[in-house]
Amino acid sequence: MFTNFNAAERAVHYPADRRLVARFQPGALAVCAALVLVPVGLAWAQYLAFGLPTDPSARLVAPTAADPQGFPAWLRIGHWVNFFFLVLIVRSGLSILADHARLYWNNGCAPGTDWLRFTPVAVPTDRMWTAKEDARYLSPVLGLPGYRHTVGLARHWHFITVPFFLLNGAVFIALLFFTNQWRRLVPTSWQVVPDAWSIFVHYATFHLPVEPNGFFHYNALQQVSYFAVVFLLAPISMLSGMAMSPAIENRFHWFPKLFGSRQGARSVHFLVTVAYVAFTIIHVAMVAATGLTRNMNHMGTGRDDSVSHTGLWIGAGVLLLTVAAAVGAQWVSWQRPRALQQTAAAINGNLWRLSIDQFKPTAYYKKADITSYFWLNGKLPDSEQWRTLAATNFQDFRLSVGGLVENPVELSLADLKALGLEQNITMHHCIQGWSGIAEWGGLPLRKLVDLVKPHAAVTTVAFYSFGEGLYGGAYYDTHTLANCLKPACILAWEMNYAPLSEGHGAPLRLRVENQLGYKMVKWVCRVEFVESHEQVGKGFGGKNEDDEYFDLLADT
Ligand SMILES: Nc1nc2c(c(=O)[nH]1)N[C@H]1C(S)=C(S)[C@@H](COP(=O)(O)O)O[C@H]1N2
Ligand SMILES: [Mo]
Fold first, then answer.
1. What pLDDT score was predicted for residue 1?
2. Which of 276, 270, 277 is nearest to 28 (CA)?
3. For the CA atoms of the chain, what is the radius of gyration?
4. Tens digits of per-residue pLDDT, 169-190?
5. Which of 132, 371, 522 to probe ligand 1 with, by most ligand atoms within 8 A of CB?
6. Which of 77, 188, 213, 435 has the fewest CB atoms within 10 Å around its CB?
7. What number of other Cβ atoms are within 10 A of residue 230's Cβ?
8. Domain 360-547 carries which CATH code?
9. In the chain, where are the structural domains located?
């Protein structure tokens, strides 16, 4: 009903192998288990040795004049809006993760170094294995839009939602401090730490502490948890998300290091998601366990009322709306993918064009940073022409450079090499999530531009490949002329100080360091200067933009 896959799409999005597993490295599993078991074990040890600690909530039963009196409408609306967006963000995030269902702490992403993977597949070493083949199927019940290799659409939902999620959060926090509502969430004394622990000992040993009336104030553990969600989880998810952007990473190399590495940021981004989901489950369970009707009225109607069902109905309404949005988003993803792509371009495309797309990347890494592994992507060309060229070491290869230029040229590899060699060590960011650091050597695009002299009307450069896209037809992509003129943008014939291998794009592949990997065409045969990307292919900026609804600008 919501999908109309043809045979080719079915083979990609609905593969025979749809197993969903979670495989931890033993060490990682031990750490995760310890994070849960150690506190619970300590709580039990304290309880068995010393009995239940004094319940600190007993002090809180009577509200004081300094306490917030109830929940204003802005707070209640912000709370539900936040939930609505969070569901969209988490579900689309899971779809993105499924496209490279492996998490690492190292930038090289070598198979076997993942601390957690959601695939039973061990990467074969006896044949070419691409990241696209490695993508996993995710049920559309869990993911938005789910299925396999739907990262383009999933990212649109993720990035369309994020600005509104952040805006809602910023308004919420501002109003907290503009009113006295911050007193609910922000502890004002370190006493909150031992108090929260005492309450945790209660819960962990199956005792309910005295329930203060949430209309005025929360118990210490509640306060600490809510504080952590608003003031720790939310900023961490934002920062770790930003740390994954190629435009940001290539401009501010120190930024992903806040999380250890770029993959560290990705892992933290996932762990924060787990924390959001775990929090939501426990939060809802506690709301139900400590007076469902009254709690729902607090957040629904803003009244301290344990009789009326209105709060419950409001909660149910929000839930229904959220489910309806999920179903609607599923429909849009498959019935109106182009409109979704264009909406994303109107919101984020413009946002990025005016901000991070302006950054100039720098080739910053050192030889020692080069990673031992570098995933492969794309289909090796199987045209007669490329095979023949490859068989003779690309001696007869001619790069044709034309379009709206004064001086169209055909250049052999020797010609290109005579024009100049620039060597850069940079980090590659695939849209699917993996990264790698390598040295790339080749001709700076600005030198090619100087040589061919594009007309004033040129805004865009198109790069065509000998290879084909996922659904057939020549692979190509476009870049703004501005990005092509930035530092470290080269047509490379060298990787890690050796001639480019066939898999990595021989004889020539593009490097545009502030963009995602899919914009870096491999097996380049032709360069064309054009007035607009709309004149090329189906007009959306590249093969993946045309067929898989990827973004025209790939700074994130
Ligand atoms: N011709 C062509 N170029 C391509 C692709 C492709 O499928 N065909 N895949 C792109 C993607 S998605 C990535 S991440 C990089 C991968 O480069 P690598 O295989 O050298 O790691 O190449 C890009 N260039
Ligand atoms: Mo990619």
1. 56
2. 270
3. 27
4. 999 999 999 999 999 999 999 9
5. 522
6. 188
7. 18
8. 3.90.420.10
9. 7-99+135-356, 360-547
